[in-house]
Amino acid sequence: MYNSQLPTDGHSPSADASFGNGTHAFGKAPEQQGNQRIRHLLKCFGLRTSLIRLKVIDALLTAADNQRTLGVRGVHSHLLELGIPLSFLSVREVLKRLCSEGVITLNADKSYSLHEEAAKVLEGRA
After folding, report:
1. Residue 114's beta-bridge partner residues?
2. What torsion do the CA atoms of 122, 79, 85, 53 make, to the nearest 10 degrees?
3. What is the pLDDT of residues 59-115, one digit of tens each?
4. What's the rounded Cα separation, in Å, for the pair 126 and 119?
5. How far is the C-alpha of 79 from the C-alpha of 59, rounded, in Å?
6. E strand or H helix at 79, and its extent?
7. What is the assigned CATH class of domain 29-123?
8. Residue 71: which residues within 8 A CB-CB, separation 6 or more?
9. With contact defined as beta carbons under 8 Å apart, do 126 and 44 qualify?
10. For the chain, where are the E strands, in sequence order?
């Protein structure tokens, strides 16, 4: 057990641990980085960050990376598969709000995708 009153050799015990530095120990760093990008995107469009917005945008980005498109039901199903219990109506309302703010677009086939300007923000070109 660590005793803060005992002298040390100038090294922090947690820095010497072989389990990693905490931020990467459980594989959370890539998710946090993705969330930070999405948080920045929402801020650029004047929207507050919420868990549902983060997850909906992440679902659309994941689908786009896999060359797929998602509609309301697809986004809702994806979130349920991830163990995120959101109602269909909540997902639909978030998608409508993101559309009205110009973050995503509703395609002719009733699927959603990231708007060009939003994609530029995520890539750091805006």
Report:
1. 104
2. 20
3. 999 999 999 999 999 999 999 999 999 999 999 999 999 999 999 999 999 999 999
4. 9
5. 8
6. helix 72-81
7. mainly alpha
8. 109, 110, 111, 112
9. yes
10. 104-106, 112-114
